Each structure stands twice: as C-alpha cells, then as structure tokens.
Amino acid sequence: MIVLSLLINHPLCIYFSTVKDVRPGLLLTHEQQRLHNQMKKRRECQLINKATSSKELEEQQRQEGLEKAIDSTNKGFSLLQKMGYKPGLGIGKNNSGIVEPIGIVLKSDRKGLGREAALKQIREMKKSIIRNKRSAEPSVCEYRERRAQEAAEKLDLLDLLRCQRVCRQMDLKQDIQEASEKFFWPKQVSEVDTNEPKQEEDEEDVISINGQLEILNFYLRQTYNYCVYCGIVYDDETDLMEECPGPNRQDH
C-alpha cells in the first residue's frame, strides 16, 4: 500500500494525468467542434472581406488615376508640349481636334470583342423583320372584309348545290336527259374522280360560284317559276313576280 501511494503521488503520474490529448485533427467534445467551426467560418469571412476590399481598393485607385489629369511628368504629354500643344486646346495644327482624351472602357468579362455590336445589329434586324411583317399583314377592315367574303362564298356554294339538285329533278321530270349547262346539275362521281387531263378549261373554273348561282337561279325562275330561297314553284311568271320578294338571298 505504501508503494502504491508513492507511485500515485509521483510527479510524473500527476503530470500525465493533467495533460490533455491534443492530437491534431481530434475533436473529442461537442464544445471543441463548435469552436472549431466558428474559427473556420471566421477565417472564411476574413478571406472574403480581404478579397472584396482588395477589389474595391483596385477600383478606387483606377478611378482616381483616370480622373487625374496627366502632367509634364508623363512622357507622351511632354512630347506633345514640345510640339506646341497647350493644355485645354484641341490637338492638331489648327487646334480643331479633340480636347479630352478618348475614354477608357474596361472589359471585365470574357465575351468576344464584337459580341455587343453583333447583338445590337441583331436587335435592329429583329425590329425590321417585325415592322415588315406588321406592314404586310392585312388591316382590321381588310381582314373583316375577307372573312365576310369567305362566309358569303360558302353560302353561295350551298345555294348553288341546292339549285343544282332541284334543276336536275325538274329537268328529268320534263324528260331532259342532259344538263343545259355543265354546272346546272350536280357533278357525278365519275366526273369528280376522273384523273384524265383536261383538254380545255371548264366553264365552272372560269365563272365564279356567285356567277354560276346567278345564272342557274335565273334559269329556274324563267323555266319553272321556282325560287330557291322561297322553296316554292309558283303558278306562273305573274305569280312569281307578285309573291316572291326577289331573286337574291338578301331580298328574303
């Protein structure tokens, strides 16, 4: 027991028991980890601030240098003075040149030197294309007129088809086996599906839908006293003239 107590109280044992484990990279407690993270963040902030301050200082020095007028200590300025240049006057023989030096434009990006000029030209090209397209587009009035014309042509086509069916029925009742005009009767399937080349231009290709309707409507009224818009066969021409409002759709 005496020997054990002497060993425990030995100075070396007391020293080793009080020394902390400070091996590099070893964080034993949560408090040590927290302090380490704080120091790391503080170091990063210091580096960022240092880089920012250096950039700001560089920019400030550059701006001061650009704003400061050159004097006789500058070799180029001294050469100009020897050739007769006076500060505040334009350069050249008659002092008609520029007074202030050409401004310096600092290029801090890695874009091509001609990129800005090309983009500016592209913007102008786009504006020109849009202007030409808008000028080529029909106006509101022209668009409305075209839509109204298309709608009228559809109605004329429907009226023409109805007149053709009625004309064929009435002609066959009168033992007329062939249409007086090619467009008086509806086209047969064989006529529509034929692939033979046309020897001459058909009449219906020359006369418009409205023209065909006008001619066929006149034929029905004069021949059979029939009005396609009334849908009635009148007794005679006098009955047709008195009872029918008129020969056109607008009259009805």
TrEMBL record:
Picking any one GO molecular function of the record gives: nucleic acid binding
Q: Which domain of life does this protein belong to?
A: Eukaryota
Q: Ranges for the G-patch domain?
A: 72-118
Q: Pfam families from the entry?
A: DUF4187, G-patch
> Mind telling me which GO cellular component terms the entry cites?
kinetochore
Family that this chain belongs to: Belongs to the GPATCH11 family.
Protein name as catalogued: G patch domain-containing protein 11
